[in-house]
Design a protein that fits this description.
By secondary structure, the protein is mainly α. The protein has two domains: 35 residues; 54 residues. The chain contains five helices and no strands.
């Protein structure tokens, strides 16, 4: 016997599984799956995450004070140059 919350979660999960089975068997899903391999989607997501990480790191670099750069042993010119790079450049 399940509690009401567990039963609702189980019902929702079952409905989702049924819906996904219908989507997988539809012609539209098969067409899209042939055009866009999952490896390509995964690579795209990885690239987007890398770019987001670069933006975040470069934004943090641009906020460092001269004292913080000195304490960490960073050259201010290199920090400035790195923080001004666009996110798509390594």
């Amino acid at each position: 016997m399940y509690c009401a919350t567990c039963q609702a979660a189980t019902d929702l999960c079952n409905k989702r599984v049924d819906l996904m089975a219908k989507i997988r068997t539809s012609d539209t899903f098969a067409t899209v799956q042939r055009r866009v391999p999952w490896a390509t989607v995964s690579a795209l997501l990885s690239r987007l995450m890398l770019w987001r990480w670069r933006v975040r790191c470069r934004r943090e670099l641009s906020t460092l004070t001269a004292r913080q750069m000195y304490d960490t042993g960073l050259n201010p010119d290199v920090v400035w140059r790195e923080s001004k790079k666009p996110f798509w450049e390594a």
